[in-house]
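Hi, here's the filled form for the chain we discussed.

Project: internal
Contact: R.S.
Residues: 134
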Amino acid sequence: MAILTWSATLKKTVFMMFAPGDKAKVMYVTFPQFRLGGCSLQYVQVFKYLGHMITNTLCDDDDVFREIGNLFTRTDILARRFAKCSVDVKITLFKAHCISLYDAGLWSKYKTTSLNKLSSCYNKCLKVFFGYKR
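And the returned structure, exactly as it came back:
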């Protein structure tokens, strides 16, 4: 039983390489295949860990775009299920389900355009949920 669990864990294990900030310190461009317990580990450039997208460039744009998709999804679900509720109920629901950007505090390296798209997404979601016109 322990062997099956260990093997299943190795199938989910991946590795990521981070380039140094100073390009002059790069020694090798390619690396040998990493192995753990006789199994080859898969190389990835992007990995989702505890809901946060980690990239080998340490840029948070992928995580911002993931949050944009989640915001549209949550707003669509709320708009379909609670379309006939009062404005006070809708405000409470929107605050509870759509404004919770827990991992935004982890964002440190991102493009301004990514945050502009998040802001635009937030405005569109408000309009959709509360029924405002363009």
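Let me know if anything looks off before we file it.
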